[in-house]
Design goal:
Layout: E1 14-19, H1 34-48, E2 56-59, H2 68-81, E3 87-93, E4 96-100, E5 111-116, E6 133-135, H3 136-147, E7 152-158, E8 165-167, E9 173-176, E10 212-216, E11 225-229, E12 237-240, H4 241-252, H5 258-268, E13 280-283, E14 298-301, E15 308-309, E16 322-326, E17 333-343, E18 346-350, E19 361-364, H6 369-380, E20 392-399, E21 420-422, E22 435-442, E23 448-455, E24 461-463, E25 473-474, E26 479-485, E27 499-509, E28 538-546
Parallel strand pairs: 1-2, 1-3, 3-7, 7-10
Antiparallel strand pairs: 4-5, 5-6, 8-9, 9-11, 10-13, 11-12, 14-19, 15-18, 16-17, 16-19, 17-18, 20-21, 20-22, 22-26, 23-24, 23-25, 23-27, 27-28
C-alpha cells in the first residue's frame, strides 16, 4: 500500500509559523486581520495531528513579534538544531512585495520578491533596500542552512506580489495580500545602476542533502486572498483562503504525500470561482506530509446554514450514522448529530437543540476505513463503463527500482524514463517501492472532468494529483498522468497492509465553468449534483495486488 501519515519517534518534526498582519510603519489600509488567525488555526491542526506543543514556534504580534531580525534568528535556530531525517515546516502568512534589482538570469524582470515583516517600512534609497523585508534569496539561504544538516524542509508561503481588491459574489470584501511598490516609496522603476545586484543562489552548485518542497498561495503575478471563511457562515472570520484550504486538508487526515495534500487543497480552493488564485506546488512533492498521528480523530467544520460538513461517503458516512460535535481544539463533547444524508464530499446533519454559539466541528466516530471503500464502491458501481468514461483511453507503465528498503529516500521520480509498458487490465503483483504510472487520455470530441480515486489495501481512499499539476479537466486529445508508489513498510519500520488496491477514474461531462473535482472530496468543490445523480457520469475501475514479497 502507499504511505499513510505516520508517527516516527526517531525524529521530532518541527514547525515555525510566522503571521504578520500589523505593519506600524505602513498605511493602515495594509493591515491584515488573517495572519494571526492563520497561525493559530494551523498550529491547532498540527497539535491535533500529533505535533508536540514545544515543536511548534508561533511568531505573531501577540506571541513573538515577527520582525525581520527575529524571523531570521528563528530560522537560524532551526538550522542549529536540525538533524538528519528531521522534517521542518516553515510557514509565512503576510504581505509580499517586489523591489528592483539588477537584471540577471535569476531575476530577468529586474524585480526581486520580498516578504514583509512587522517592521517593514518604505524604500531606503541610500541602502537600496526595503527595511524590515526578507528577500527570496535570504529565505533560501536560511532554508539551505537547515537542509545542510540533512533535514527536509517544507516551505508554505501565503502571500503574493501583486496588488488589487476582489469583491466576492457574496458581497463581502476580499483583500489581497500584497503591497504595491508605490506604497513602499519605490516610484516606478528605480534606475538599474542603483539596484541591488543579485548573487547566485546559495547551494545552487551543490544542493544540500535535505529535500525541499514549496507551496505558494499564488503564482507570480497572481493574488493571494484574505476573506471571511467559511463562506456564508455566521461563524465566518477573516482567514487566508489558501491556509484555510491547507488546514482543512491536514485535519481530514487522509493524506500520504505532499502531492496528495496539493490535490486536496486545489479541490478545496474553489470558493472564489474563476477569480481564485492558482497555487504553486514545487519540489520533492513525494515527501510524506510530516509525521502526523495516523489514528487521530477526523474532524470537519460544521456550516450551520444547511447543517452540512465537507465529508461524506468517502469517509465511511451513511444516513443514520452519528457524529460527535466539538469546539475546535477541544476534546469536550457538545452533543451528537445524526447524518440525514451522505453524498461524496458532503453530509447533511440533524443538529441537537441548545448548541452554543461559535465554531463547531463534527468528529467522525467510525473506525473501520475499509467500510468507506465498500460504501464508495457501492455508490460508484452503477457508473462503471457508462457515459463520459467511453471517451477515456488508459495506458500504464511500471518501474521497479533496484533498492526497495526506504521508498521515502528514493529520488522523487514521478515518471521514471525506464518504466516498462504493462497491461492495466492485468497488472502484475506490485512490491515495495514499485511505481505505477497511469496515462489518462481524452479520445472523445468533448471536454471531460476526470477524477482519479485510489483505494489502498487498508481501505483508505485518496484523490491522486496529476504529475503536471493540472486540473481534472481534459480537453479533446489531452493526456495527464498519475503515479502510485507501492509500499508495505512505513518510514518508521511499521508494517502496512498488503492486498488488493484499486484505481477508479470517475468521468463527468465538462458542463460547468470550473472543473468538477472529486479528489479532495470537499463540499466547496461541488458546483453540481454528485456523479451518482448525473446521467452522463461514468467510471473505469482497475485493481491489482500489493505483496510484501518482491517478484
Amino acid at each position: 500500500m502507499a504511505m499513510l501519515l505516520v508517527a516516527a519517534p526517531a525524529h521530532a518534526d518541527r514547525a515555525l509559523l510566522i503571521g504578520v498582519g500589523d505593519y506600524p510603519a505602513l498605511a493602515a489600509e495594509y493591515r491584515l486581520a488573517a495572519p494571526a488567525q492563520d497561525v493559530a488555526m494551523l498550529a491547532a491542526a498540527l497539535a491535533e495531528a500529533g505535533f508536540a506543543p514545544e515543536a511548534i514556534t508561533r511568531m505573531t504580534a501577540d506571541t513573538r513579534v515577527p520582525t525581520r531580525d527575529a524571523v531570521l534568528a528563528a530560522l537560524a535556530d532551526l538550522a542549529r538544531g536540525a538533524t538528519a531525517g528531521e522534517r521542518v515546516l516553515v510557514y509565512f502568512s503576510g504581505h509580499g512585495a517586489q523591489a528592483p534589482v539588477a537584471v540577471s538570469a535569476r531575476e530577468p524582470d529586474g524585480l526581486e520578491e520580498l516578504y514583509l515583516m512587522h517592521d517593514a517600512a518604505g524604500w531606503d534609497g541610500g541602502r537600496r533596500r526595503v527595511p524590515g523585508a526578507i528577500t527570496d534569496r535570504e529565505w533560501m539561504a536560511a532554508i539551505d542552512a537547515i537542509r545542510a544538516r540533512g533535514a527536509d524542509v517544507w516551505l508554505v508561503v501565503d502571500a503574493c506580489h501583486a496588488a488589487g481588491v476582489y469583491r466576492g459574489a457574496d458581497g463581502g470584501g476580499v483583500r489581497t495580500k500584497a503591497v504595491p511598490t508605490a506604497a513602499l516609496g519605490i516610484e516606478g522603476r528605480v534606475a538599474l545602476a542603483d539596484a541591488d545586484p543579485v548573487a547566485a543562489m546559495p547551494g545552487a552548485a551543490s544542493p544540500p542533502p535535505g529535500r525541499f518542497a514549496a507551496f505558494a498561495a499564488a503564482r507570480a503575478g497572481a493574488l493571494a486572498i484574505e476573506r471571511l471563511l467559511p463562506p456564508g457562515s455566521a461563524d465566518a472570520r477573516p482567514l487566508s483562503q489558501f491556509t484555510h484550504a491547507l488546514t482543512r486538508a491536514i485535519r481530514a487526515g487522509r493524506l500520504r504525500s505532499l502531492r496528495d495534500l496539493a490535490t486536496a487543497i486545489t479541490a478545496t480552493d474553489a470558493v472564489l470561482g474563476g477569480a481564485a488564485p492558482e497555487p504553486s506546488f514545487d519540489g520533492a512533492l513525494d515527501m510524506d506530509v510530516l509525521r502526523l498521528a495516523p489514528d487521530r480523530p477526523r474532524r470537519y467544520p460544521l456550516t450551520r446554514a444547511g447543517a452540512t460538513i465537507p465529508a461524506g461517503i468517502e469517509e465511511g458516512l451513511a444516513a443514520g450514522d452519528r457524529v460527535r460535535l466539538v469546539a475546535p481544539g477541544s476534546a469536550a463533547t457538545l452533543g451528537e448529530a445524526a447524518v440525514i444524508e451522505a453524498a461524496l464530499g458532503a453530509s447533511r446533519l440533524a443538529l441537537p437543540d441548545g448548541l452554543p454559539m461559535g465554531a463547531i466541528e463534527a468528529e467522525i466516530m467510525l473506525s473501520p476505513l475499509a467500510d468507506a471503500e465498500d460504501r464508495l464502491l457501492a455508490m460508484l458501481a452503477p457508473l462503471a463503463g457508462r457515459g463520459a468514461s467511453h471517451a477515456i483511453e488508459v495506458r500504464a507503465r511500471l518501474w521497479r527500482p533496484g533498492a526497495r528498503r526506504d521508498c521515502a529516500r528514493l529520488p522523487a521520480r514521478g515518471d521514471p524514463e525506464n518504466a516498462e509498458p504493462v497491461t492495466i487490465e492485468a497488472l502484475p503483483v506490485l512490491a515495495q517501492c514499485d511505481v505505477l504510472i497511469v496515462e489518462i487520455a481524452n479520445r472523445g470530441a468533448d471536454s471531460i472532468d476526470v477524477s482519479p480515486l485510489y483505494a489502498d489495501a487498508d481501505g483508505t481512499l485518496t484523490g491522486l494529483g496529476f504529475l503536471d499539476g493540472g486540473t481534472t479537466r481534459l480537453a479533446p486529445g489531452a493526456m495527464r498522468r498519475v503515479a502510485i508508489r507501492a509500499r508495505h513498510e512505513a518510514v518508521d519500520g511499521r508494517r502496512l497492509a498488503t492486498g488488493v488496491e484499486r484505481l477508479m477514474l470517475v468521468a463527468l461531462p465538462a458542463r460547468t465553468a470550473a472543473p468538477r473535482d472529486l479528489r479532495g472530496a470537499v463540499g466547496a468543490a461541488w458546483r453540481s449534483a454528485p456523479p451518482a445523480l448525473d446521467a452522463d457520469a461514468g467510471m473505469l475501475a482497475y485493481r491489482w495486488r500489493v505483496s510484501a514479497t518482491p517478484p
